[in-house]
Structures are given as structure tokens and as C-alpha cells.
Amino acid sequence: MKLPELKEKLKSKYIVRVVAGVLTIALVGTGIGATAVFAEKNSTAVTAEADSTTGSSKDADDIADKLMDSVSLKDNDADKDESVYLISDANGNVNKTIVVDHLKNKDKKDTLDDASNLSDIENVKGKEKFTQSGDKLTWQAGGKDIYYQGTATEEPPVTQKVTYYLDGKEISPEDLAGKSGKVKIRFDYTNTTSYTETVNGEKQTVSVPFAAITGLVLGDGFENIEVTNGKAEVSNSSSVVLGYALPGLKDSLGIKDGDLDGDVNIPEYMEMTADVENFSMPAAMTFVVNASDYVSTDGIDTSDLDDMINDLKDASTQLQDGSKTLAEGTDTLADGLSTLQSKLGTFASGVGTLQSGLKTYTDGVSTLSGGLNTLGNSTGALVSGADKLNSGAGQLASGSATLKDGLKTYTDGASQLNTGLNQLNDNTGSLATGVTSLNDGAKTLSDGINAANKGAAGVSAGAAQLKTSIDTAKTGADSLAAGAKQVDEGVGQLTQSLSDMPETIKTNINKSLEPLNELNVGTLFKTLGYIDTDKITADNVSAAADAAVNNAGDIIDALTNMQNQNPSATYNQILVGLSQGKGAVSVYSAVNQSVTDSASTVQALKDGSAKVSDGASSLDAGLGQLSDGASELSSGASDLAKGTTQLATGATELQTGTQSLADKLPELTKGITSLVNGSNELVKNNDTLNVGATALNAGASQLSAGTQSLMNSVPTLTSGIKQLVDGSNTLVANNAQLNSGASQLADGTNQIVSGVDQLTTGSKTLSEGAHTLADGMVQFNEEGINKILDAYNGDLKPFTNKLQAVIDAGEEYQTYSAIADGQTGSVKFIYKLASIDAKADSDK
Description:
- By secondary structure, the protein is α+β, with helices and mostly antiparallel strands.
- The protein contains 18 helices and 19 strands.
């Protein structure tokens, strides 16, 4: 290490800055990645307890992710990883403590020895058993890692107090819920640990260097958020506050606020203020971690500082004496080199002029030859490139022709589809015209009957008109009967399709459940009493899925036994199969309900069709009677009156039937029109596509012809290039001999001149530097080294002892519960505070 660097490292307050910087930046920089903190999420009891306390599991997971993204974890090879969950109220008072331990079976042992003072111990990720004697546990591990949990009542090493303020006045979290105003939340942390360490023969009382990192998920309505000892992350969907503290560290190191520079801080609390509307805090969580578990202390050893200080003192004395001798010798060397330098200057000037002229000529010839040789060497690439260009152009022409043919086939098909749809659309107009004519005929028939009833004077004329109307009505009745038949057939097909649909879905559900029945899951559920049959079907899959959710523990035990018998089956396959079956039944129920709801609509359509058919039959009967009445019209007015009365009845039924048919026509024509419009859009650009394909094909053919012409000209071009290269090579053949003598002369002269110049300049610089070094070493020894020694022996040496004591205390604290002899441990504390929900009817 250089002396200036050493001086900088040992200057006043440097060690303070190192400790504060390492423990602050490393713990709360871009990442406290606590990779193991939530590895025990499979613990159902812990998760359920935490969720019921924090209110929202999603918000708790979100803030846990934020905190994990904020911690930087060093490599951890501890034998026992411990996570302590402290379930707290909104003020930070702990209501329940749940501890989750992970024993790492690195050597795949059959048994693992452990120690624990927890109660209610249970295995959370397996069926391995344990025996207990006092605090000693022996697990039958079978080569596996062990995950277990238990409860504790011992006070944690760091406690937290949460205080809430509204508009400057302290307020309880219950009363703050839903309120609006200026809100302040303060987290105060207290480190209750105390260790006595002996360092360099001195006893030091210090605390374990814990770091507390707190995260808050804020509700809507938070603005102007400010954080002391932390930061806020605000987005459109949520606001998250992260803060940190190092409780007890300043007292352990004996540091006062005035000892720290402005850019270094060792906080002991976190505070957040904001303008709030309808206050709520969905989730709040604090991680407390041992700094020695998260910051590598490798290489931190203050015991060798005394040796380094002594070496520094000896080295500075030797440097001061040597620098004085060096300054005296450099003065003599500088005087001799100055005389030699002046005599060499004239000779070197003439040699330089000769060499410069020859160099200019030969450089020009070499440049020309180099360019021509490069060109000659590239003719192979030119030929290859031209050949590839020609081949690619041919492929392009062939592909464009294929594209043209394909586009023609596509546009012809689109045109044919469009023609068919337009014809269908045209026929809807004919259908509408026929229905209108039928309706008009019915009205004409009614008018004729009224005219016949006016008197005998118009009977002959009425008979002729009646005959004409009968013929028209007969044609309309035939069309109406045919249309009614088609409607009836369509309704029949629709009814059959709707009735078949639920059964088809049900059949598919049963088929999809066959893999579960092949695994005997139905027999299992019957044995457990959740269903009545040996198979899971569409009728009972919902009950089976609900039973799997509501009785998860029993189901998992039963499935474990099944998996041992049939390793190909997995819990996930069975549970996913049940979930998908239940979802399919929901679809089946929805379809069945839709069919039921559609039944009335289909029946109404069927009834309308029946009425049209009945109307057509009645019309046909009436028209027959009307025809008979017309033949007998001359026989008497009474027969005419009877026939016209029957005809009036038939005409009324005809108008009802034709009007029902006319009412259905708009829906039919609307659908056909949509099809036609889509077809028109499809064929709109047919001509443009075909023209573009033709142009592309023509251009590709022209490109292919041009590349072939280029290919044919390549041999002539390469022959000319070769002649140029041969001529330039002959021109430069003797350049080396021409420059050889001049270069040797110039090189020798320049080496002599350069060497003397460098010696002269170096001797002057060396002389000046030697004198400066001699003077500086005297000043540095008096003002720098001696002050460093005074500072170290006065203030810094006791501080380094405290620093080593803090490091030792952190490494000594390994678990919260207990640990077996010879084991190493790592512990994390997770404080989960109760959520604060906004009150809808609270005073603002």
C-alpha cells in the first residue's frame, strides 16, 4: 500500500465512516435480498396466522417482496436457518410468536441432532418424527432436510414501538382509520441485547449489530409522502414506504452525532409523514436481521494495526535519508548530458532531410501497389458474390411467380364467395317482396269481401274480382305453407341441437375425469365419505373438489399413500383434475341453464310456426269455400253472404300469419347483409393484389436477367485487375533496397539523439523530483506520519477495539430459540403488524 493511501485510510474518523457505510449501504442499498426469509411459506399455520393479522395476504406478500428486494445476503452455509414470526397489533405489541426452523442435512444423515426451547413443535413439510429429552431433539431425518415450527414466549432481541399522529396530535390506530389530515407514523426500535467481549485484553460491552428494515403498504389517498431514514415508492396502483434503522450500534461504538460526517448516518428510528384522505394501511412488516449474517466480515481484523503502524514509522525514516542522497547524485548527471546534446543536433538534421525525401516516394508507390493487390485479392469474392446475386435473383423470380399464381387462386375464390353471398342477399329481397305481395293479397281479399256485401248490384263484378283474388291468394297460401314447413323444420333442428348440447358436454366431462378414476381417486373419496359412488363423475365432481379444499390435510395424507403405490400420480395432477372437472361442471350448468332459458324462446318460435301453418291451412280451406261460393254466387245472396263471411275469417287468419312472417324477415336480412359486407371487403383489393403480384413477377424477371448479364462480364473485369496488380508489383520491387541505406543511417542517428535527449530531460526531471522528494519526505514525516501515530494511539485504537467487539457479538448470536453443540445458525425476525382498514362512515 502506498504511503498517501495509508495516510488517507488512517486519518481521523475514517474507521467510523467505514463501519457506518458498510452496515448502512450493504444492508439497505439496492438489495437486502433475504432469500431464506420466506422459504417457509409452506407452513400453513404461519401463513394463516399472518394473513388473519395483516388483513390482506396479497398486500403482505407484496411488502414482503419489496423487503426481500432490499436486503443483500452473503453466502449462508449455516446448519440451522431460523425465521421468527412475531404477530403484532398496529402499535407493535407482540401477541404471538411462531418460530420456523430449517435443519440442513448436508451429509444426508439418517438422524439429525437439534436443540430447541419451543413448544407445540410440529413437522411442516414431511412426516419425519422426533424424540425429545429436555431441550435436546433427535429427528429421524432419513437423509432429508427438516422443516418444523413451534411457539415461543421469550422477548425478541429488538422491540418496536409504533406511534401515530394526526395533525400533530397522537392518536390510536383504531381512531385514525378513515380519518383525513396530516399523518405521521414513527417506528422506534430498541436493541435489548448485551454482550461483554474481550479484545486485546480489554473488556467491551456491546449489542448485537441488528438491522431493522420496515415496509408499509399505504391505502389510497396518500400525497406528499416524506420518509426519514428511508424512501417511498409511489405508483398508480399503490404506495409503498421502506425504512431502516441500526438500533444500538452508535452506543456500542461510542459514537455521538457530532462524530459523523453529513453524508453518513446510523439511524435508530424510521418516520413517515403524508397528507392523507380516508386513512388506511393494508399491510406493515418489519425484518430484523443480524448484520454479521448479511455483511461479510472476512478480512476485518484490527489486531495487526500495531504492527502496521511500527512498519510505517521505520519506513518513513529510511525514505527520508535515501531521498537526500539521490538529490545530490542527479545534479552531476544533468551537467554532463547538456554538453553532448548540443553537438549532435546539426548532424541529425541533414540525415533527416535525406530520409524524408526517399520515404515520400516509396510510400506513394507502396500505397498504389497495396490498393491494387487488395483489389486483385477481392476478385474471388466478387465472382462468388455475383454468382450468389444471380442465384438469389432466380429464386426471387420463381417465388414471385408462385406468389402471383397463389394470389390469383385466392382472389378467384373470394370473388366466387362474394357472388354467392350477393345472390343470397338478392333472394332476401324476393322473399320480402313475396311476403309483401301475400300481405297485400290478403288485404285485397278483405276489401273484395266488403265490396261483395254492399249489394246484389255488384255481385257479377265482385265474382270476377273474387276469382282473381282467389287465384292470387292461392299462390300466396302455397308459398306461406312452404315457408311455414321450412321454419318448422329449422325449429325442430334447433330444438334437437339444444337438447343434445348439455348431454354432450356431460359426456365430455366424464371422459376428462377418466384419468382420475384410473388412479382410484373415486374409490378414495368414497372411502373418506365425500361421495357415494366409486367414480368421480360430472354429477359429483363439484362435491369432490369442495371436499378436497375443505379437508386438505386428510386428502394430502391419503394421496401420499396413493403416490407411494403409484409414483406416476402426483398431488398436483389429481387436484388440478378435480379443479378442472369442477370448472367444466360450471360450464355444463351454465349451458344447461342457457338451454332452459332458450326453451321458452324456441317454443314461442315453434308456436308461431304452427300458427303460420294453421293460417295457411285455414286460408286454403277458406279459398276452397270461396271458390264454391263464387260458382254459386248467381244462385242467391244468402249463399254469397255465407261464403263472404267464411272468406273474411280466412282472410283475417291469413293477415295474422303473413304479418308474423314479415316480422321475422328483418333479422334474416340483417345477418345476410353483414355477410355480404364482409365479403365485399374481402374482394375489394383483389385487383390491387393481382396487379402488384404481376408487377413483382415482372421486376423479379428483369432483376434475374440483369444479374446474369453482370455474371457474364465478371471474367473480363478480373483479367484487367490482374494486369494492374502485376505492373504495380514490378514498380515497388526495389523500394526496400532504395530505402535500406537511408533508414540505417537515420535510425542510428535518431537513436543517439533520442537517447541523449531522454537522458538530459530525465536527469533534469530526476534532479528536480529528487530535491522535491527530499523536502517532501521531511515535511511528510513531521506533519503526516507523526500525526497519524498520535491519532492512532489517542482516539482510533480504542475505537477499533469496540468495532472488533461488535463484530464478535454479531457472530456469536446465532439463534433465537436454541442450537445444538457444534452447529452453526442464522436467524431472521419478521414482525407482522395488524392492518388498519378505512371506515366508510368515519368523520373526514
